[in-house]
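Section 5: illustrative case.
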């Protein structure tokens, strides 16, 4: 005899009841997974009673013992109906396998979770009381079978909608994952990362220019401040002359200046090392910000269901906010690349050689914090060198180079929550201290 239960708790409860009646039996559930195959294989022996959950014993055939077939074969008893008809059929199918004899019987109570939650048990109970049926009396009627099947169909439909809903949520995250990892793999596989760097410049700079100059009142001072704190251009209001150009012309002007300054910086370093540095700058921005984005998406998914109380579809709300967060993520990645582009070097000695070309009066002005030319060269792995944003080179020649911010070589010791010495206006832990 094989007794099927819907849970481990039910199997243990039934086991205690059989022990009280002194009926020898075997219990098969998740707590005895090591002996699972052996217990199931013995279920077909004469006089054997096996209590099993619906997930236990799969993949093992029950062979009938001697003279068991003459006595009717394996008898399967279901203590209650499962939520899915498929599981009922699987349990019923354990008997009468491969031509062996066997039979099955399922018992249902109106107090079972299936009937109580989905089968209109209260209505059926009132009908039975009206007919004068007593507690514990066995009932058989096609209406009862139909009621059980209707309850199972409702559960199956609910579970299907839950799985479909979960898949719809996962598709949103999967689409974002494909875009990010495609970009990341392209960076890893690229033999020339320089075009990817220039692509970031071509996409991020126009967005920033439009942000500062696209409104009714152009913010020229804000744009100059952003440029000078991100790139070594040293622009002033007289040099930039943004008022004399359109937004598109200013964008093209800045892009050319930035690329020219980067070409000058990278010309002092070894080409192979520069490629590794460029690849590292992009990958570092992607990996760090993508991790933060994943945490934010998890928090959004946990809380978006509460919007159902406002008569809003949580899936639509999730898709809308996820898209906005992803757009912000890609913009932040590009800005991170731009911020680190002139703040990192593959070789400190090469960077010091580059600084040696600056005018002597500027070096004397920042002597306490500027690096010395006799410092030892570092390995060819990416190494931050501080706020390069102050190193400015005009397009007319190398002689017109200015330095308005010190290089981070000998910065004073500062607290994590104190203003960063580089002059960015951020806290130290969110600026130079983050790299450290």
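Designed sequence:
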């Amino acid at each position: 005899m094989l007794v099927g239960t819907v849970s481990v708790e039910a199997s243990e409860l039934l086991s205690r009841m059989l022990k009280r009646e002194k009926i020898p039996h075997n219990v098969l559930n998740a707590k005895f997974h090591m002996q699972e195959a052996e217990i199931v294989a013995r279920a077909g022996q004469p006089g054997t009673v096996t209590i099993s959950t619906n997930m236990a014993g799969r993949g093992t055939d029950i062979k009938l013992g001697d003279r068991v077939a003459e006595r009717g074969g394996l008898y399967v008893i279901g203590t209650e109906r499962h939520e899915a008809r498929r599981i009922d059929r699987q349990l019923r199918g354990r008997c009468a396998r491969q031509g062996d004899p066997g039979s099955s019987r399922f018992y249902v109570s109106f107090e079972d979770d299936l009937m109580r939650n989905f089968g209109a048990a209260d209505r059926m109970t009132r009908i039975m009381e009206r007919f004068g049926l007593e507690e514990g009396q066995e009932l058989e009627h096609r209406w009862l079978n139909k009621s059980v099947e209707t309850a199972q169909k409702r559960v199956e439909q609910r579970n299907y909608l839950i799985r479909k809903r979960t898949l719809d949520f996962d598709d949103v995250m999967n689409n974002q994952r494909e875009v990010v990892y495609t970009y990341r793999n392209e960076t890893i596989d690229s033999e020339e990362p320089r075009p990817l760097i220039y692509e970031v410049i071509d996409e991020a700079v126009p967005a920033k220019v439009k942000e500062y100059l696209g409104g009714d009142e152009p913010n020229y001072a804000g744009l100059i401040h952003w440029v000078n704190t991100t790139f070594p251009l040293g622009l002033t209001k007289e040099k930039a002359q943004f008022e004399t150009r359109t937004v598109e012309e200013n964008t093209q002007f800045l892009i050319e200046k930035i690329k020219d300054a980067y070409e000058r910086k990278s010309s002092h370093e070894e080409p192979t090392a520069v490629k590794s540095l460029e690849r590292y700058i992009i990958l570092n921005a992607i990996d760090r910000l993508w991790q933060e984005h994943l945490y934010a998406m998890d928090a959004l998914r946990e809380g978006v269901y509460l919007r159902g109380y406002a008569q809003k579809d949580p899936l639509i709300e999730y898709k809308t906010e996820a898209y906005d967060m992803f757009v912000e993520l890609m913009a932040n990645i590009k800005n991170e690349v731009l911020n680190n582009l002139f703040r990192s070097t593959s070789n400190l000695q090469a960077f010091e050689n580059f600084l040696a070309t600056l005018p002597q009066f500027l070096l004397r002005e920042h002597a306490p914090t500027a690096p010395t030319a006799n410092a030892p060269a570092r390995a060819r792995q990416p190494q931050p060198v501080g706020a390069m944003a102050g190193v400015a080179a005009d397009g007319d020649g190398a002689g017109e180079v200015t330095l308005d911010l010190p290089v981070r070589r000998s910065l004073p010791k500062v607290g994590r929550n104190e203003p960063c010495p580089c002059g960015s206006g951020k806290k130290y832990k969110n600026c130079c201290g983050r790299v450290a």
